[in-house]
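Workshop exercise sheet. Pairs work together: one partner reads the sequence aloud, the other fills in the structure field after running the prediction. Swap roles for the next sheet.
Pair: D.N. / O.F.
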Amino acid sequence: MFSDVTFDFAGRTAIVTGVGSPRGIGRAILSGFADAGAHVAGCDINDDQLGEVKREQPDAFVKNVDVRDKQQVIDFVQQVAARYGSIDILVNNAGIAPFCPIIDLDEATWNRTFDTNVKGYFLFAQTVAQHMIAQGQGGNIVNVTSVSVHTSGEHKAHYCASKAAGGSLTKGLALELARYGIRVNAVEPGTVDTLIIKDAYLAGLMESLTENPGTPINRLARGGDMVGAVMFLCSEAANYMTGSSLLVDGGGFAGSQMPQDALREYEKAKADRTK
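Structure field:
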């Protein structure tokens, strides 16, 4: 049944938002689809970083787009469709994480977080879905959300709330777009070692997370760790999945682990008892 299932995306067109960050999820996903033969288009709000993307992917169509601006989104999507003839895949990835205690959080930061992390996903999903419906060939939308869909944390209540909204939006889009052959799913990364995290956290906290990531795989995620999950969701191997979310967190959300020093003491005591 699955003998013909591959991650070959030759002839298909993929849009990825938030591709600027050098170690980021978006740039890795853009490169992954390009390596798999797809026509790729990416956007970001940082011109310097977009120049780097263009040098890495000279055949890609890249443009400065503010995902919060409806007209910019519409113009970009129309340009992609005109350039490649169709749009088959959208990966909503652009996001921000301005960490701040909730009692100090100003309204402007709240609005900027939701406008980027939720409104931006909605604007791109709506605009791309309209093109996909007109094409009549279905398509795939993948929203990069977070393990924060399920939980929250200090200094990031607004960020986690926006990611939870993104998870709910994924389900709503899946329900409404299924009739057009458009599948909508999400990938939920754990803590990723990207510049957005290093900018958001205090240096000491980030160093602590790097040394003690708290995951069974025992490291922070990398942007490239999300590529396989996204490509799977956009492949025929996932043709019965919509409204679903894939947790890609190194096992961190599976549960707490016993500290290694305590585990060693337990094993030593057990060995002493059996002598």
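Discussion prompt: DSSP finds nine helices and seven strands in the chain. What would you look at next?
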